[in-house]
């Protein structure tokens, strides 16, 4: 019985998803802010909600876009170029505004929040994160092999991989930020470094995706 996706697909998309998810963006900065303001428990609950929001976006895209990508090379090329261009634009913006990435303006006075609220707020951030739509609507289709059939199932499997990566990556950010509150706030240069790394990584990934072809 043929696997839904190949190991090569898993490794290639897993690397792309890790770069998109792990570099500083709305979700990462949200989780860091939760950790600094409320501590580890709220941060990890926020990560859970954020990852569920990511999963929601993935399901919507897979169900709606999968059949189209399977049939149309024109649609695939359009998605690829638009997604790559948008990724480069996000990278440029992240680099330009790297000085605005600060995590020292949080409220340290109240470390309480109900778990339902933490999960709900995380879900809203994840479901409304433009990087989520970019990853699943513009990047994910490029790692699909239409000739293997069952495109929607391929998108779900790879999407679940991204969900797992997001859960672990954001969870690590939240855990470390909770442990290193004072380190994050000690120097504005550390916030700028986050923006620089994120911007350059996003630009590089966007250029790389633009140069790739449709899988056979």
From TrEMBL:
Domain of life: Bacteria
Entry keyword set: Cell membrane, Membrane, Transmembrane, Transmembrane helix
Pfam families: LysE
Protein name as annotated: Threonine efflux protein
Keyword set includes Transmembrane helix: yes
Principal subcellular localization: membrane
GO cellular component: plasma membrane
Localization annotation: Cell membrane
Bilayer topology: Multi-pass membrane protein
Chain segments annotated as transmembrane: 12-32, 44-66, 72-92, 123-144, 156-180, 192-211
GO molecular function, a single term: amino acid transmembrane transporter activity
InterPro entries (alphabetical): LeuE-type
């Amino acid at each position: 019985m043929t696997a839904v996706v190949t190991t090569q697909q898993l490794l290639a998309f897993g690397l792309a998803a890790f770069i998109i998810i792990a570099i500083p963006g709305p979700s990462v900065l949200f989780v860091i802010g939760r950790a600094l303001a409320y501590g580890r428990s709220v941060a990890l609950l926020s990560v859970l909600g954020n990852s569920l929001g990511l999963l929601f976006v993935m399901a919507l895209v897979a169900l709606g876009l999968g059949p189209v990508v399977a049939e149309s090379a024109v649609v695939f090329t359009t998605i690829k170029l638009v997604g790559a261009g948008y990724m480069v634009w996000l990278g440029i913006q992240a680099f330009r505004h790297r000085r605005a990435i600060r995590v020292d303006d949080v409220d340290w006075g109240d470390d309480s929040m109900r778990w339902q609220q933490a999960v709900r707020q995380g879900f809203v951030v994840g479901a409304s994160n433009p990087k989520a739509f970019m990853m699943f609507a513009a990047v994910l289709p490029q790692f699909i092999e239409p000739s293997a059939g069952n495109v929607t199932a391929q998108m779900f499997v790879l999407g679940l991989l991204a969900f797992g990566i997001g859960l672990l990556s954001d969870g690590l950010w939240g855990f470390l930020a909770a442990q290193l509150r004072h380190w994050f706030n000690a120097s504005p240069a550390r916030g700028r470094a986050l923006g620089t790394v994120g911007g350059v990584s996003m630009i590089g990934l966007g250029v790389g995706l633009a140069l790739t072809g449709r899988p056979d």
